[in-house]
Design brief:
Two copies of one chain form a homodimer. Chain A has a five-stranded antiparallel β-sheet, with helices on one face. Chain A has a two-stranded antiparallel sheet with strand order 1-2. Chain A has helices at residues 33-43, 47-50, 52-57, 67-81, and strands at residues 4-5, 8-9, 23-30, 93-99, 108-120, 127-137, 143-154. In chain A, a hairpin with a 6-residue loop joins strand 5 and strand 6 (127-137). With 160 residues, the first copy, chain A, is an alpha+beta fold. Chain A is 22% helix and 34% strand. Chain A is elongated. The A-B interface holds A 1-2, 39, 42-48, 54-55, 57-60, 64, 66-69, 71-73, 75-76, 79, 83-84, 88-99 and B 1-2, 39, 42-48, 54-55, 57-60, 64, 66-69, 71-73, 75-76, 79, 83-84, 88-99.
Chain lengths: 160, 160
Amino acid sequence: MSLQRNGDWMFKYYFEDFYVGQVFESGPRHVSKEEILDFARKYDPQPFHIDEAAARQSIFGGLIASGWHTGSICMRMSVDAMIGAAASLGSPGVDEGRWLKPVRPGDDLSLRIEVLEVIPSRSKPDRGVVRVGWTLSNQKQEAVMTMKGLGMYARRPAEA
Amino acid sequence: MSLQRNGDWMFKYYFEDFYVGQVFESGPRHVSKEEILDFARKYDPQPFHIDEAAARQSIFGGLIASGWHTGSICMRMSVDAMIGAAASLGSPGVDEGRWLKPVRPGDDLSLRIEVLEVIPSRSKPDRGVVRVGWTLSNQKQEAVMTMKGLGMYARRPAEA
């Protein structure tokens, strides 16, 4: 993406602004039944995600959010907490995604992002990769999802 | 989920129907600009996902799909190819997700799913975990995303 906005270099976070142990927090974010159904009908139409009666009969005992929906909510919360203010160049990938407990209609989710590693690019000196750990918790302070994510960020240009 | 549909035990795939090397294929699945924008506005509102002008200025040279959108499309293609016909009990997680090349408006995506490992549950003899590798490719036969996913499946009940 362009690092320039309205003619100014003006991101809050460039690659060199990240450090190991740095924490970002986002939420609470409400999850409605309608959103769970809408996402799952498009992207994960398994009975326990789209059919309340079938979900009640399932091992989950009721409707639960698709894991991809939960991850996408984490992504949005990350953008709101940090990435949206950063010189983001996209993500090479994610590791160790774990869905620990169901996310259910009416849950209020909070995300904690901790910087685990800061890795300058060897081939491109203007950027680097930041590895973070995500912990998504519900209103009962139960961890519902964890994941490790990679993000590429530009260094602050000389003009900034 | 209930393993019973319309009074019959009738999934095509139970845990014991999976074997290492088994392949499922899905697609092609078209990706429209409207869908890319709609997903990203909700879940990943970075400029190169939601703003065509900013995307042109970015390192990607144009609008690209959110990685979470691409993964969610993979999920849907998996449900269409296999999980929708299987005694699925949800997923413990995913590993080694890699976004290798951008997914762009107008792309037609194909998914290849290969069974990598079949792991009976030690604590619950009625089920097991199947580990699969996903390779998502575009219309130029370029791999755009790879991931390893875990799925829990019920064994065929005695009645089936």
